Amino acid sequence: MNQVILIGRLARDPELSYTPNTQSAVCRFTIAVDRPRRRDSNEDAGADFIRITVWGRQAETCDRYLSKGRQVAVLGRIQTGSYKNREGVTVYTTDVVAERVEFLGSGNGGGQGVSRNTFTGREPDFAPAMQDTGFSAPQDQFSGFDDMPDTFQAAEDDIPF
C-alpha cells in the first residue's frame, strides 16, 4: 500500500503549469511538516519540506486559493524518481502525488489543528481517520444517506447493552 496523509504549511506560493501535449494542469508546491518533539526535550524538532504535485482541476484550484503559509492536508501517494543534473550527477527525488488537498485553518498562518475547509466550508473527510486509525473510508460508501433525519429520535425499545 502506498498512501500518505500530511498536514503542513506551504513553504512558498504554488506554481501552476500545463503539460505540452495534453494541456493538463499540474500544480507543484512544498509544504513544511513539523517533526514530533522528543519527550525529553523542549527544543523544536524542526520540519521536513515535502514536495507536492497536484493534477487536473484540483491543481488549478490549489493555484488559485493557496499561498505561502497556508495550512493544508494532503492525501496522496509517494513517487520517487531520478534525473541527471548539468554536472552529470544523478539526483534522486521523492514527491507526494496528491489525490486530495484540503484547505485548513485561515488564510496565511492562522489557526491550529484541523479546522473547517475554507474552500468547501466542511470538515476534511479524512481528518477523523487521521486521529483514529490512519485510514479513511471511500466517499461512495456513504451515498444513499441523504434522506436521514437531521436530528436523532430516541426509540422506546430496550437497548440490549
Label this structure with key terms.
2 helices, OB fold (Dihydrolipoamide Acetyltransferase, E2P), mainly beta, five-stranded mixed β-barrel, globular
The order of strands across the largest sheet is 1-3-4-6-5
Q: What's the story with the biggest beta sheet?
A: 5 strands, mixed, barrel
* Series of secondary-structure elements, N-terminal to C-terminal: EEEEHEEH
Helical amount: under 10%
Corresponding CATH architecture: Beta Barrel
Tally of distinct domains: 1
SSE topology:
Layout: E1 4-10, E2 15-18, E3 25-34, E4 47-55, H1 56-65, E5 71-84, E6 90-104, H2 127-132
Parallel strand pairs: 4-6
Antiparallel strand pairs: 1-3, 1-5, 2-3, 3-4, 5-6
